[in-house]
Design brief:
The complex is a heterotrimer of chains A (about 290), B (about 90) and C (about 800). Chain A is about 40% helix and about 20% strand. Chain A has twelve helices and 13 strands. In chain A, the strands form four sheets. Chain A has a five-stranded antiparallel beta sheet. Chain B has one domain: Alpha-Beta Plaits. Helices cover about 35% and strands about 30% of the residues of chain B. The longest helix of chain B is centred in the last third of the chain and has 17 residues. Chain C has about 800 residues and is an alpha+beta fold. Among the domains of chain C are: about 140 residues, 2-Layer Sandwich (Aldehyde Oxidoreductase, domain 4); about 150 residues, Aldehyde oxidase/xanthine dehydrogenase, a/b hammerhead (Aldehyde Oxidoreductase, domain 3, Alpha-Beta Complex), CATH 3.90.1170; about 200 residues, Aldehyde oxidase/xanthine dehydrogenase, molybdopterin binding domain (Aldehyde Oxidoreductase, domain 4), CATH 3.30.365.10. Chain C has 20 helices and 31 strands. The longest helix of chain C is centred in the C-terminal third of the chain and has 28 residues. The chains are: A alpha+beta (about 290), B alpha+beta (about 90), C alpha+beta (about 800). Chains in contact: A-C, B-C. Chains A and C meet through strand 11 and helix 12 of A and helix 18 and helix 20 of C.
Chain lengths: ~290, ~90, ~800
């Protein structure tokens, strides 16, 4: 097996172009498991830890541009205020050791429906920037991941960054696991309020072949908020509307039965998490505790 | 010798199957296994080996039945090894 | 965590490091620093690596095994099958029914079929892939009830019922005013020890072999290995290496015979280490059980009868299932005065993974059931659950349902009463709490919504040591000498230290008895006689007694020398390296010993026990230990997520030998009890393990374990050394039912199955995937390939 260690983004892209199908590695918390179990034996592995460009994040045109190599720990410590939903999700990943190495870029690369960092990206309409020697392109995250563990990366492309707006309203993330740490999500829910665009972003994790944006639920609650002029008044959302939001979210889920949980439970739990996260986010918008 | 349970007597029976007999070697071994199994005392201990374990009387009775079955099935040689557990009383039943 | 000991301080020896002190572990710091040599760290120049080919099928005939391609690989030194087993081709803890390597049939997924030795572990693994086994796949028998039926295929020659134990006590027709029934199920728990199966076999060049191994009982391993190698025991020498936990999962052989076979065949040292997934296939698990119970009582709460039908799934081979079947039958009623009992305990063979010893050994399963029954009864009678138990608690002088008289001490009433009196944790307002103090924790599933508190109690008991006539003796040799001008005591036993702290206990006993601080506990090996198994919570008692008595003999010889030399006739003692009489110093030990060595060896046998007769009656056990638990939980009733707030426990230990170690045993046992209550289960489908990794076999983390409040009773057992009782298993037995009782208290759900899943707590029935969407259907394209989605 060839182990390539490019020192710049240019070098990394050239390496990937020269070895289509080469496996990129950064934190290794996913790739090494595959290698150790013999599930994948790539001929070439490209170590991206020496490429400075993907470890940075900055503001660009009023948006945040975050390198694919930013770890979960850094998302918590450096982006906690700017992207609270993503920080909350990062906090639920594995253990401190895993968070120190694992990256959000890795979640995008493996494209697993259970990726903890994905729902907040969907809820804030993140855009994924990928590059090759042929150039750069940007893909909305909902079109980047197209199936369980499948994304639209070409064999000669690498993920360089993801771009999303700084939080302009409250954000939430909740995840169900049968123990309190180091557990793969049974299901999860990300939510972000966008008062400026008068919209609500929501995303179901680990209850479908990919993360799922429950559009009916989003549209419904946006309508309710508009109808009652709640963005400005910051009054309560009626309990019946919160319940209905939960039901619509639940109906959008496409869960399966497996060792971690039954489909029925997942559907039910998604509904509860949807209702609760919206309640908490809205209470924060109202300036009320809870 | 196992840890918890030690039978008073064990008998290890090995059918040395005779090819020229009426029944095939396979059938000879199968017949022996069936009869051994019926005794309630048997376990397989190798490709042609069966072990009977239990109290002295019941094991010796079963040994007789098994050997007879083997001979009737055409085997000419049955190796029998009987072992008495010295400390059987000390190790329960 | 607070400990409120209720012991009276005995007149302790002034020698430091004796019994009663929290002496540190000699291996503690090395283990934390990563410098401790576990059996998986063993290394010797020129060693080969062994690997095992295992059956992928739970039930199949083997038509042929083709090894030539593997043998031809560069770096491969041996490929062995059953034909290469020199001696007995089967092994087993009770009944030798398990093939060393399968010949005609495999009876469980993971059964060993062939072995490879190669110069690199990767080469060995690749060589396994080149061995071709032609299987005729058969339909597996996947549950005990099917195995019991008339038309089930016979998995072993004498049928599928491995054992049946009946306990018949009193009047079978006894009628009761109030009756409660229940059906209970316990899933398959795993010992989940962190150190994988591993060891190193070194041929001695003369036909014999030295095996360095992680195990629980060196001599029973030696017996089985010698039989299968067709060697006399003196040519098969075992030394205990660093063990990373056991909990019953190392009592059976794993790689012992395999490694020795490869070593003798290649004339090279051979090391074998199982990977984690292989480990799950490579050791026995806790017996799953289905139990039907009926309790009858008078209207004012006095038990009239207990009827129980217990069905255990023993898996493919016997292991120690016989003894588990018996144990469950004897403990099925719980520590209560039961005038009439009909217990049927059935142990079945199936094609599921073999089950055997795990901490609690049959008592765990029945305790879950009988404690649930007692709560049901209390509810029907309108009685407080603890009061009902107090009313029926068994006492010394009464008889157990299996006929044995309850020995003193048996403080069931006391421990129940005291655990209830331990102050309850404060109840905090749920809304506005720190997330870590809510169900779901930092996963942020609730901010207090839906959170309800519940409290539950349970009491359990079990035998200490082996039972029903088995003489599990222990041997200890003590040597006292002068080294570098100081007295040194050396302790030689074959007792397996598996992490429980026996090395400390042995040293503490030697210090107390011989008044010498410098005690070295030598590595355990088969040169000393058997110490019995490190299981059944028996080592402190039995090996402790052997060490104690051997020290006493050494001491007596010293006193003889002193009497000869000084003519002292008064009572003598040794303290802090000096012989004293009535407070006067007579002489330093060094002087008496001079340059000589005093050595004594003792084989300690506990009181005899007796087998059960056909009615399940007999004096079957030589010591009983009791523990009561109270669990306080909080449940998010909308999501079914649980936070265990606190566990309180009282346990009678006879005598505290090492307080810190005792706390460790209690907390560890409770952690395993919590695991069984809430999250630990080997999931099996059609005989195949679905979660053979720590990704999905979940064990409690530090964020799941609550603080534990302990009250320890020291009521001396007159027959035991220092009056001590075994302590390892009781914490694991009643902690599980206490937690589930608390869940029932919070949710009013039946919860008859453990581990309890969120689905059960909220009342969503668990539907197995009986109808997977078909590729042509519209649902299929929407969900993608299920195989992809089942991984991370």
């Amino acid at each position: 097996m060839q182990f390539l260690q490019p020192h710049s983004w240019r070098e990394a892209l050239e390496a990937r172009a020269a070895h289509p199908g080469a496996r990129p590695i950064f934190g290794g918390t996913d790739v090494m498991v595959d290698l150790n179990f013999g599930r994948k034996r790539p001929e070439t592995v490209i170590d991206l830890t020496r490429v400075p460009e993907i470890r940075e994040w900055n503001r660009e045109d009023g948006l945040l541009r975050i390198g694919a190599g930013v770890t979960y720990t850094r998302a918590i410590t450096e982006l906690g205020n700017l992207l609270p939903g993503l920080a909350m999700a990062s906090r639920t990943v594995g253990s401190p050791q895993i968070r120190n190495r694992g990256t959000i870029g890795g979640n995008l690369g493996s494209a697993s429906p259970a990726g903890d960092a994905l729902p907040p990206l969907y809820a804030s309409h993140a855009v994924i920037e990928v590059a090759s020697t042929r150039g750069t392109r940007r893909i909305p995250v909902g079109q980047f991941i197209i199936g369980p563990k499948r994304n639209v990366l070409e064999p000669d492309e690498l993920i360089i960054a993801f771009i999303m707006p700084e939080a302009e309203g409250p954000q939430q993330y909740a995840k169900i696991g049968t123990r309190n740490a180091m557990v793969i999500a049974v299901c999860s829910f990300g939510l972000a309020l966008h008062p400026e665009s008068r919209s609500v972003g929501a995303c179901i994790g680990s209850a479908g072949p990919t993360p799922i944006q429950p559009r009916d639920a989003e549209n419904f609650i946006e309508d309710v908020i508009e109808e009652h002029d709640l963005w400005e008044s910051r009054a309560e959302i009626p309990a019946s509307a919160l319940d209905r939001f939960g039901v619509l979210a639940s109906e959008a889920a496409m869960p399966i039965d497996d060792v971690r949980g039954s489909a029925d439970y997942r559907r039910h739990a998604v509904g509860v998490l949807a209702r609760r996260t919206l309640t908490w986010a809205w209470n924060e918008h109202r300036g009320v505790a809870g | 010798m196992p840890g918890y349970d030690r039978a008073e007597l064990t008998a290890e029976l090995k059918v040395v199957a005779s090819p020229g007999a009426e029944r095939t070697p396979r059938e000879q071994v199968e017949a022996v296994r069936r009869v051994a199994g019926d005794s309630g005392l048997a376990h397989e201990a190798g490709p042609e080996t069966t072990v009977l374990a239990g109290g002295r009387g019941e094991v010796l009775d079963a040994v007789r039945r098994v050997v007879e079955t083997a001979l009737d099935a055409g085997a000419h040689v049955v190796e029998v090894k009987v072992e008495a557990e010295r400390d059987a009383e000390r190790f329960g039943s | 965590m607070t400990t409120t000991p209720t012991r009276t301080r005995p007149s302790a020896s002034r020698t430091r490091g004796g019994i009663g002190e929290s002496v540190g572990r000699p291996d503690g710091v090395p283990k934390v620093k990563g410098e401790f040599e576990y059996s998986s760290d063993l290394h010797v120049e020129g060693m080969l690596w062994g690997a095992t080919l295992r059956s992928p099928h739970p039930h199949a005939n083997i038509r042929s095994i083709y090894t030539s391609d593997a043998e031809a690989m560069a770096g491969v030194f041996a490929v062995l099958t059953h034909e290469d087993v020199p001696g007995r081709k089967v092994y087993g803890m009770e009944i030798p029914d398990q093939p060393v390597l399968a010949w005609e049939k495999v009876r469980y997924q993971g059964e060993a079929v062939a072995l490879v030795a190669a110069d690199h572990p990767e080469t060995a693994r690749l060589a396994l892939g080149k061995i071709r086994v032609d299987y005729e796949v058969l339909e597996p028998v996947t549950d005990a009830e099917t195995a019991m039926s008339e038309d089930a295929p016979k998995l072993h020659l004498s049928g599928n019922e491995l054992r049946r134990v009946d306990v018949r006590h009193g009047d079978p027709e006894a009628a009761a005013e109030v009756v409660v029934e229940g059906e209970y199920e316990v899933g398959m728990q795993d010992q989940a020890f962190l150190g994988p199966e591993s060891g190193l076999a070194i041929p001695d060049g003369e036909g014999g072999v030295d095996l360095y191994i992680s195990t629980q009982w060196l001599h029973v391993d030696q017996d089985q290995v010698a039989e299968s190698l067709d060697l006399p025991p003196e040519m098969v020498r075992l030394t205990l290496s660093g063990v990373g936990g056991a909990f019953g999962g190392r009592e059976d052989l794993s790689m012992q015979i395999h490694a020795c076979m490869l070593a003798l065949h290649t004339s090279r040292p051979v090391k074998m280490v199982y990977g984690r997934e292989e480990s799950f296939h490579g050791h026995v698990h806790r017996h799953p059980a289905k139990m039907r119970y009926e309790h009858g009582a008078t209207r004012d709460g006095k038990l009239t009868y207990v009827k129980a039908n217990l069905i255990f799934d023993g898996g493919a081979y016997a292991s120690s299932s016989n003894a588990v079947c018996l144990n469950a039958a004897t403990f099925a009623c719980g520590p209560y005065d039961v005038p009439n009992a009909r217990i049927e305990s059935h142990m079945l063979y199936t094609n599921n993974p073999p089950c055997g010893a795990m901490r609690g050994f049959g008592a765990v399963q029945v305790c879950f059931a009988h404690e649930a029954q007692m709560d049901k009864l209390a509810e029907k009678l309108g009685m407080d659950p603890v009061d009902l138990r107090l009313k029926n608690a068994i006492e010394p002088g009464m008889k157990f349902p299996f006929g044995q008289e309850v020995p003193y001490p048996a403080p069931v009433r006391e421990i129940l009463g005291r655990v209830r009196e331990i102050p309850m944790p404060d109840e905090q307002e749920a809304m506005g709490r720190d997330l870590r103090e809510l169900p779901g924790g930092v996963s942020n599933t609730t901010h207090g919504e839906g959170v309800r508190r519940g409290v539950g109690y349970a009491v359990g008991f079990k035998n200490i040591g082996f039972s029903a006539g088995f003489d599990d003796y222990s041997t200890a040799r003590i040597s006292l000498s002068i080294e570098d001008g100081e007295p040194v005591v050396r302790v030689y036993t074959a007792a397996a230290e598996v992490g429980q702290g026996l090395v400390m206990v042995q040293a503490q006993i030697a210090r107390t008895e011989l008044g010498v601080e410098n005690v070295v506990v030598e590595a355990a090996d088969t040169r000393t006689g058997s110490a019995g198994s490190t299981s059944a919570s028996r080592q402190s008692y039995v090996t402790g007694a052997a060490v104690k008595e051997a020290c006493e003999k050494v001491r007596e010889r010293i006193f003889e020398l002193v009497r000869d030399e000084f003519g002292e006739s008064d009572e003598l003692a040794i303290e802090d390296g000096n012989i004293i009489s009535d407070g006067r110093e007579i002489a330093p030990l060094m002087e008496i010993l001079d340059d000589g060595e005093i050595s004594e060896i003792v084989e300690f046998h506990h009181r005899a026990t007796h087998p059960l007769d056909e009615n399940g009656q007999g004096d079957a056990h030589f010591q009983f230990a009791f523990a009561a638990h109270r669990a306080v939980v909080e449940v998010d009733v909308e999501l079914g997520l649980v936070r265990v707030v606190e566990i309180a426990t009282t346990q009678d230990v006879g005598k505290v030998i090492n307080p810190k170690a005792l706390e460790g045993q209690i907390e560890g046992g409770i952690a395993q009890g919590l695991g069984l209550a809430l999250m630990e289960e080997i999931r099996i489908q059609d005989g195949e393990i679905q979660n053979a990794s720590f990704t999905d076999y979940l064990i409690p983390t530090i964020l799941d374990m609550p603080p534990v409040k302990m009250e320890i009773l020291e009521l001396a057992d007159p027959e035991a050394p220092y009056g001590l009782k075994g302590v390892g298993e009781p914490p694991t037995i009643a902690s599980t039912p206490a937690i589930v009782a608390a869940l029932r208290n919070a949710t009013a759900m039946e919860l008859g199955r453990i581990p309890v899943r969120p689905e059960h707590i909220i009342g969503i029935p668990k539907k197995p995937p009986d109808e997977l969407p078909q590729p042509e259907s519209s649902r299929y394209s929407g969900i993608g390939r299920l195989e992809d989605r089942r991984e991370t």
